[in-house]
Here is the input.
Amino acid sequence: MVDGLETVRIEGTPQGSPLFPLLSNIMTDDFDKELERRGHAFCRYADDCNIYVHLEQAGKCVMASITKFLEGKL
Here is the structure.
């Protein structure tokens, strides 16, 4: 929607499309494997991921390194 009006979609997958979970899992498989390789406890949903750490500083370090991984790899 643009300014409250529907527009014709020329790219992307519509929200709620049955194709979205499949595409999401294909794109994030390497991400899951990287988190497992690093030994992180995590829970990933279709478009969201929680990575569990014990300390705030550890969370900041993980966020920085995972962001770098995602930007460079995916």
About this structure: Residues 41 and 52 are 5 Å apart (CA to CA). The mean pLDDT is 87. Strands lie at 41-45, 48-52. The first helix runs from residue 19 to 37.
